Amino acid sequence: QVQLKESGPGLVQPSQTLSLTCTVSGFSLTDYSVHWVRQPPGKGLEWMGRIQSGGSTDYNSALKSRLSISRDTSKSQVFLKMNSLQTEDTAIYFCTRAHYYSGHYFDYWGQGVMVTVSS
Amino acid sequence: DIQMTQSPSSMSASLGDRVTITCQASQDIGNNLIWFQQKPGKSPRRMIYYATNLANGVPSRFSGSRSGSDYSLTIISLESEDMADYHCLQYKQYPLTFGSGTKLEIK
Fold first, then answer.
1. Residue B34: pLDDT over 90
2. B36 interaction partners in chain A (CB closer than 8 Å)
3. Spatial separation of the C-alpha atoms in residues A47 and B94, rounded to whole Å
4. How many CB atoms lie under 10 A from the CB of residue B8?
5. pLDDT digit string (tens) for A56-89?
6. In the predicted model, is pLDDT for residue A102 greater than 90?
7. Residue A37 contacts by C-beta under 8 Å, 6 or more apart in sequence?
8. Which of A7, A15, A34, A14 is nearest to A106 (CA)?
9. Which residues of A touch B97 (CB under 8 A)?
């Protein structure tokens, strides 16, 4: 069955780099794009970026200078790296999948990982 | 960027009520809109995709509609389990953008 699971550190110090992994199963990264979405505590959802099935990436312009998304298809893993973290980056980080033409757009999500930026 | 204006930000309704939540798109997005339900501590759950299509396993009391640049999520008879936050998302153009969310409470 389709599964996505985020992993990474729960606490990051200000100005440091966040590294998260989304491990997927039940589908191929060469067929689906994987997106990252975050949600600060008590607030709405923010699209961060994606890596397409062919490997190209798109980013939220507000985060583009700090954000990088990559993948290892052999391990079915997608990676998020974001540098220069500040307290406002405290949020739950989710990964989700998309395939436009099949209608499988954001149909499965990971459970999310809470990241707190604090010294 | 496309702005999605969602309303209301919060609402309270009684069991059995008809409830409607709306998102207005600042540019043409066609039918490229998804509605999500999110309960506390949970991931978003896709309810409606391509503006009007009911996602797998979603109760038939939920429906989506479009009138021009206005998109609506309707619950025809509110049940207690529908208490949640609801979000819209446009996926016509990058960057993808979400509405600000609606908190639905039961009276």
1. yes
2. 45, 106
3. 10
4. 12
5. 999 999 999 999 999 999 999 999 999 999 999 9
6. no
7. A45, A46, A47, A48, A93, A94, A95, A96, B44
8. A34
9. 47
Mutant choice from A5, A46, A47 vs B, greatest count of B C-beta within 10 A: A47
Distance from CA of A107 to the nearest CA of B (A): 6
Mutant choice from A52, A92, A99, A106 vs B, greatest count of B C-beta within 10 A: A106
**Rounded mean pLDDT, A109-119:** 98
Q: What is the mean pLDDT of residues A3-13?
A: 97
Confidence band of A103 (pLDDT split at 50, 70, 90) = confident
Q: What is the CA radius of gyration of chain A?
A: 14
H helix and E strand count, chain B? 0, 11
Answer yes or no: do B89 and A60 touch at CB < 8 A: no
Going by C-alpha positions, the residue among A68, A100, A93, A66 that lies closest to residue A4 is A93
Alpha carbons within 13 angstroms on the beta-carbon side of residue A61 total 7
Look at the block and give the residue holding tokens 């395939």: A99
> Quick one: pLDDT band at residue A11, thresholds 50, 70, 90?
very high
Show the tokens assigned to B39. Answer: 């309960």
CA distance readout (Å), B33 to A10, A59, A119, B29: 32, 19, 39, 8
Contact call for A46 and B98, based on CB within 8 A? yes
Amino acid letter, A108 = Y
Q: Which of B43, B49, B98 sits opposite A44 (nearest CB)?
A: B98
